[in-house]
Amino acid sequence: MAIFSEHEREHVMETLGELERNVKLIFFTQDFECESCRQSHELLKELADLSDKLSLKVYDFKEDKEIVEKYRIDKIPALAVEGEKDYGIRYFGTPAGYEFAALLENILDVSRGTVELSEETTEELQEIDSLIHIQVFVTPTCPYCPRAVRTAHKLAQANDWIQADMVSATEFPHLANKYDVFSVPKVIINEGIEFEGALPERHFVQHILMAASSRT
Predict the structure, then answer these.
(1) Is the confidence at residue 40, as pLDDT, over 60?
(2) How far apart are CA 120 and CA 124, in angstroms?
(3) pLDDT of 33 higher than 90
(4) How far apart are CA 140 and CA 152, in angstroms?
(5) Is residue 94, in this structure, part of any structural domain at all?
(6) 3-state SS of the chain: helix, strand, coil percent to 5?
(7) Do 73 and 131 belong together in one domain?
(8) Could you tell me if 13 and 48 are in contact, meaning their C-beta atoms sit under 8 angstroms apart?
(9) Please, what's the largest Cα pairwise distance for the chain?
(10) 17 and 101 belong to one structural domain
C-alpha cells in the first residue's frame, strides 16, 4: 500500500525537483525489521523513487559493522542524509508527521551543499574544533520540533565537528526516560548541556559554545 496519497506524491516530487546535486539516503535496519524499521524503510523507498537525484542505500545494523561504526549508528531505525560528504545529519526513528517536511528541507540543503545561517553564527561556529553531539528529542505530532531539528541539522552541515540527531522519543522510550524527556523538543548537547523548546538560532548556538568550552 502506498504511503503517499496522489496529492502528497505530487507535492513531494515538486519539492525534489529543486535538488541541485545527488543526495544519498543511507538507512540502517536489520534482516528481521521491527515495526518502526519497516515503516521507515517503506517511507524512504517511496521517497527515493520520486527523484533521479535521490538514492537509497540500505545497511544491516548487525552485519555491516564497519559502515555502522563509520556513521556512528547505535540504534535503529537510523538514517544519514549525505551529499558530497557526510554532514553529520542523522535521524533515529521514523521521520514522519511534522518531521517529514523538515526531512525534505534537509535534503534540499544537502543537495545545495550550503545552509542559511546568520553571519554571526557562521563566525562563532569557526571556534568549534572538538566533537559536538546534539540530540533533539521529538514526537511526530509536535509542531515545534521540526524547527529545533532543522536548526541542529543546519549547524551540523556548517561544521564538520557537529553531529546532530533527531531522536524519536516514542520509538526510543528508554532514552526519553534516561534524559527525562517530559516535553518536546528537548535538546541534549554532549550529555552535559540541555534545554527545552525550539530556541532561536542565536540562543541554540550559545548552548553549543557552552558545551564546546566545557571540553577545553
Answers:
(1) yes
(2) 6
(3) no
(4) 17
(5) yes
(6) 40, 20, 40
(7) no
(8) no
(9) 53
(10) yes
- Give the single-character DSSP code of 211: H
**Among 203, 198, 201, 113, CA closest to 158:** 113
User: In sequence order, what are the beta bridge partners of 28?
Assistant: 59, 78
Predicted TM-score of the model (pTM): 0.94
Confirm whether 114 is domain-assigned: no
Pairwise CA distance, residues 201 & 184, whole Å: 17
Q: What is the mean pLDDT of the chain?
A: 94
Q: Cell numbers for 122, please give them.
A: 557562521
Cell numbers 525537483 correspond to what residue? 17
Across 44-74, b (16+ Cβ under 10 Å) vs e yields bebbbebbeebebeebebeebeebbeebebe
Q: Identify the CATH number of the domain in which residue 169 sits.
A: 3.40.30.10
pLDDT digits (tens, 9 = 90+) for 160-181: 999 999 999 999 999 999 999 9
In angstroms and rounded to an integer, the radius of gyration of the C-alpha atoms of the chain is: 17
Residue that the C-alpha cell 531539528 belongs to: 149
According to DSSP H, which parts of 50-200 are helical?
A: 65-70, 98-112, 119-125, 145-158, 173-178
